[in-house]
Automatic annotation (TrEMBL):
Record's keyword terms, sorted: Hydrolase
Entry protein name: Alpha/beta hydrolase
Location of the Alpha/beta hydrolase fold-3 domain: 48-258
Entries under InterPro entries matching the protein: AB_hydrolase_3, AB_hydrolase_fold, GDXG_lipolytic_enzyme
Organism: Gluconobacter kanchanaburiensis NBRC 103587
Amino acid sequence: MAGQSFLQAEDYPVTLERLNIPESDHTPAIRLFTVRPRKTSAAARPVLLHLHGGGYFAGQPELTATQLCQFAQELDCVVISPDYRLTPEHPFPAALEDAYTTLCWIMRNADTLGIDPARIGLTGESAGGGLAAGLALLNRDREGPEILFQNLVYPVLDDRTVTSQPDASPVGGEFLWTRTSNTFMWTALLNPVAAGSADVSPYAAPSRATDLSRLPPVYLSVGALDLFLDEDLAYAQRLIHQGVAVELEIVPGACHIFDQTDTPVAKRSIARRIDAMKRGFSL
């Protein structure tokens, strides 16, 4: 799949590069996949921090290289995606700390990267969407750099989905990502903490957070047949109730990772996300 993405990515007028955040006393080295427009810019560009999906146990930034190239071109921004540590070898909070390390590294290296540190956006799909939501919470609580928006695509938000009763829909969560998949993911991520227990951190499962105030505006997209539909809707509603600006897209007839296909439905959804991110960057 990554090879196919790269082949398609070559159609975009962008430059693909791999960078590394050096190892420190507290963090391992982190490989970064970066995409930037090929054309020169006199002004510093906005930066989009992307967190890939894969259930926390699989995947890499290059998995969605085509979309990242499209983002870089249409938003005229630099896209940076860390190859964060995966489960089961590295349970929570490894991936989250890698994401936060990347965010801080971007700020420190803004001049070298040619980006505007006052224009940082956040995006992620599936597990990466949950990781992005967790990063927004952690960054707020650590008083980190300002993030302009969160683009959350069918995000993983609530470990309690694995312990709740099946949805009334006979087809919800039956395609591509099932309750069995979800149970494996949460078990590996939270180890040794049990999914559904009172000890689960809100940074791992953002739906657990009681305080959702002062978070960046959210654009959330999810398919009507996705297992995560209910938890995503509940999270969006709570964000709204606590004063966070939310745009919500529910895609009829769409299951998990529906946008990884070359279909009109996927293209329309991606276009709407790009429009939302343009507004987030004030483009």
